[in-house]
Amino acid sequence: RREFEKAKEEAELIQQLRTNIETRLKMSLPADLAPALSDGVVLCHLANHVRPRSVASIHVPSPAVPKLTTPRCRRNVDNFLEACRRIGVEENMVCCAGDVLEGRGLVQVAITVAELLRFHQPRSPAHIPHPPPPTYPSTA
Predict the structure, then answer these.
(1) Residue 75, domain CATH
(2) Spatial distance between the Cα atoms of 113 and 110, rounded to a whole number of angstroms
(3) Over the chain (140 residues), what is each successive 10-residue block's mean pLDDT?
(4) Dihedral sign, Cα of residue 73, residue 60, residue 34, residue 92
């Protein structure tokens, strides 16, 4: 029963990750989310959505070379994680590069993105305080 609850919470976090990215970047993601995020491009754009120019340069695939090289993917992911730290995401909430690059730590990526989005300031003049931090299922 406990395992079922944990799996359900993780599935909800991953669905929330998809929804957050799709609504904020006005794009649709493929059914298999991990490979779509593994090159770091979408995550870098998301960081720039939260705080413009937080990732100064993003390596993107081109029509000639539709798949980024591993070092370029790594650079994008490292730049995204560094932007999260600079924006204010606490270190214990930042996923590791391997979670993104290998696509195995999608729950951790979802937690990092949820934390990052707490720092997004709406463009309206009214200041809205940050909501309290959400509670996440333990990853132990």
Answers:
(1) 1.10.418.10
(2) 5
(3) 88 95 96 96 98 96 93 98 97 97 95 94 54 59
(4) positive
